[in-house]
Amino acid sequence: MRVLKSITLEKISLSASSIAPPIAHFEAPLEAPFHVCRHIRCAAQNLSTIPDLSTISSDVKSNPRCSARCRLSYARTGQRMNGTVVITGAVSGIGLSTSKLFLAKGWNVMMADFNEDLGKKVLEELLAEYSPERLAFQQCDVSSARSVDAMAQATHDSFGHVDSVINNAGIFAKGAVHEIDEDVWDRVMATDVKSIYLTTRAFVPEMIERKSGTIVNTASISGLQGDYNMAVYNAAKGAVVNLVRAMALDYGKYGIRVNNVNPGPTMTPMFRSNPQSVIDEFAQASPLGRLVQPEDIARTMYFLASDESDPITGQNIPVSAGFEIYSGQPVQD
Ligand SMILES: NC(=O)c1ccc[n+]([C@@H]2O[C@H](COP(=O)([O-])OP(=O)(O)OC[C@H]3O[C@@H](n4cnc5c(N)ncnc54)[C@H](O)[C@@H]3O)[C@@H](O)[C@H]2O)c1
Predict the structure, then answer these.
(1) Catalytic residue from among 74, 233, 251, 302
(2) 323 lines ligand 1 (CB under 6 A)
(3) Domains of the chain by residue range
(4) Could you tell me which residue, 274 or 122, shows the higher pLDDT?
């Protein structure tokens, strides 16, 4: 029996073969947390060395709670499995940059997006760099319960588990309240707000069971302040700004953290569709004299989804080049 500091591999296999066993019998904590496979994470997270695969019992390798892919990768390589993240609105703009960053950091990524053609193209490009065991695309309309549930099933089929959900898909519409068509109002609210309810309903039960997980929503500085001619977007993002607090309160006792990133004007296809003169005007209105890049948002998403941001929860984090901090008073000499 190989001994890793004060924890034996026998104990790992015992723990991993049953569902969420107590870890009180481990003489943890040790340094350098890592895991071999998320399904034995509760047992292995406090170990400081990757265990020798041959010393881990077969009941761990055949644990039905591991997906086929997870078991296969584990059995073949003995390498640790990294976290799995679901990212919605993943094939364009902020979602695409965020997907690329998580892949570069070694996570498994389920890219969910409405746009199937673009999704297939993006997937093909990314598969030139990353293994299909680490990456999947699922066409998904985040405003539809059936579609989100199918995406959740596909995620479990591919990766077996989910550690983090990034609710990023969102749409925008212009107009004062009385000018907005009812179907446009409903579509924005469903895509930007109801979607968070649907993905949470689909993924949070397993996080509750595992007593860990993170959820990151893309809100907006338009949820923190009002804008001219953007009533439904203000309403939708304002809802997300307070929803994060409710979710953080309700799920905190399960070790689940929930936070928002609130982008300012960000150079994505959504924002680039403005005339250049408008884009320049936006840049000049920021105290830093610049717009935000999707990569800026991606880094904050990663921070909030990963253990690096522990114990931050229930927060709205503007990533905005300071765009929203101005009170609007005229400049004084
Ligand atoms: N770009 C900005 O300036 C800015 C500022 C603040 C907040 N945001 C927010 O950031 C998020 C991402 O926006 P972006 O700028 O990257 O836009 P984008 O248009 O580049 O990307 C949005 C993605 O969401 C997908 N999508 C739209 N409706 C969907 C649905 N019903 N189901 C699944 N996917 C759907 C689109 O296909 C697209 O791939 C949105 O929530 C947006 O409101 C953007």
Answers:
(1) 233
(2) no
(3) 3-77, 84-319
(4) 122
